[in-house]
Amino acid sequence: MPWAIAAPNTPPPPTWGIFTPGTVGQFFFVIVYSAVIYWLISRAKAGMPVPEIRKIAGLDAFDEAVGRATEMGRPVHFTPGFYAFSSHTLAAFSILAHVASLCARYDTRLIVTTLNATNHPVLEEIVRQAYLEVGKPDSFNREDVRYLSGYQFAYTAGVVGIFHREKVAANFMMGWFLGEALVIAEAGALAGAIQIAGCPAVVQLPYLVASCDYALIGDELYAASAYLSKDPVMVGTLIAVDWFKMFITGLIVIGVVFANLGSKAFMNFITK
């Protein structure tokens, strides 16, 4: 039965003799993208002009939240989210440095909690450095940088307990959050805290927007960290990402137009 014998699976020939079919466009995109990032970071490090990062409305509330806690004589709480050492966690670290600097300047107690043991020493050093830069190293209390638990809802319960015992007046939630997001935010609301959240997790954003006073939506978390830290690497990378988002959006629009006009040449070119 010849029809039952499988035909040999012959791989398609390489594009231009060296590229796996379907990867040519990806290869050149990565090369150009990397070159643009390097160029923007180099300009930012050299102090040369680069596009400015728009100030996000939620950033104005940072001073308001810490100032309110200072006036009430109550502490500020900060959490960097669920995961350890990812892009959103690194963004949260930059924001924490700013918040810790404000708290040190106003002599406001800052409580930082985490559920990742690997985050704990980094968080402690960030807060310590902020107090040192303000000139108040003796005001730093390492006991206020707390690793509560490695279990999601055990950590959540610990944060809720801190809110009720310490009467937290401001709550910063910056990073990636899962099911604990709404529980923590609701506990903060019951404690009467002003709350600012920043989260790139689409599934949690509706809950944070509804339960917090201010929210940094999606990529605004990364924009806020670059805006506050002024770090050349973060600034250059953020600008490059925005440029390529606009570029890809333009390709999509052009592709839709050509596809509807019945031309396949453009589509074949960008998908090589």
From TrEMBL:
Residue stretches making up the DUF6754 domain: 19-267
Keyword vocabulary terms for this entry: Membrane, Transmembrane, Transmembrane helix
Pfam family, one: DUF6754
Transmembrane segments: 18-41, 175-198, 243-262
Keyword Methyltransferase attributed: no
Keyword match Transmembrane: yes
Protein name per its UniProtKB record: DUF6754 domain-containing protein
UniProt lineage: Bacteria, Bacillati, Bacillota, Candidatus Fermentithermobacillia, Candidatus Fermentithermobacillales
